[in-house]
From TrEMBL:
Domain RNA polymerase sigma-70 region: 29-95
Entry-linked CDD domains: Sigma70_r4
Family statement: Belongs to the sigma-70 factor family. ECF subfamily.
Bias type Pro residues, positions: 13-22
Name of the protein in question: SigE family RNA polymerase sigma factor
Organism, scientific name: Pseudonocardia benzenivorans
Highest taxon, organism lineage: Bacteria
């Protein structure tokens, strides 16, 4: 823990305890300073519940570092600094959340473009139906299933070379069938 200089503090000077009094406890500091610290935090973060959370965190930090403090004045200075820093963190998180711009989302397609896309998909499905079963299987696994040549070879029980040549022949046939349908033959 970094020790805070306990020089004069005009905002909240804590007089030294009278001689012969027992040392103050964390509970005493909490009872004496919590409300003032919450008011300070409310002025910084504009939300009472968030301000109370900030002050609670400051007291939790003081509790963790209680053995390293010199005196009550250092404890109050520690709390005040922790509240200000905690409030700054809250404001920084708010600003980050406010400035966040979600990634660009794709706009919805028009009904016309969906109909055309559906017609194109149907043409591809019709062209696939004309293929021999092995070619259709390889093309479906590759382009609709997103599988690699090695995965297709393993799934179908054929070699990678056969997968490559079968896919090539299938694509050629699909292209010819779609071109013939587009030209009206």
């Amino acid at each position: 823990m970094r020790r805070i200089d306990s020089g004069p503090d005009p905002v909240a000077a804590v007089p030294p305890p009278p001689p012969g009094t027992p040392p103050r406890t964390l509970a005493d500091l909490y009872n004496d300073h919590r409300l003032r610290l919450v008011r300070l935090a409310v002025l910084l973060v504009d939300e009472p519940t968030t301000a109370e959370d900030v002050v609670q965190e400051a007291f939790a930090g003081l509790h963790r570092n209680w053995s390293g403090l010199r005196d009550e004045a250092a404890a109050v200075a520690y709390l005040r600094t922790a509240v200000v820093n905690g409030s700054r963190s809250v404001l920084r998180r708010r600003r980050t959340a406010r400035d966040y711009v979600p990634p660009h989302t794709v706009t919805a397609r028009s009904a016309e473009s969906l109909a055309m896309l559906s017609a194109e998909h149907q043409a591809v499905v019709d062209a696939l139906a004309t293929l021999p079963p092995r070619q259709r299987e390889v093309l479906v696994l590759r382009y609709y299933g997103g599988m690699s040549e090695a995965e297709i070879a393993e799934a179908t029980g054929i070699s990678r070379g056969t997968v490559k040549s079968t896919a090539s022949r299938g694509l050629d046939t699909v292209a010819k069938v779609m071109a013939a349908r587009a030209s009206g033959r």
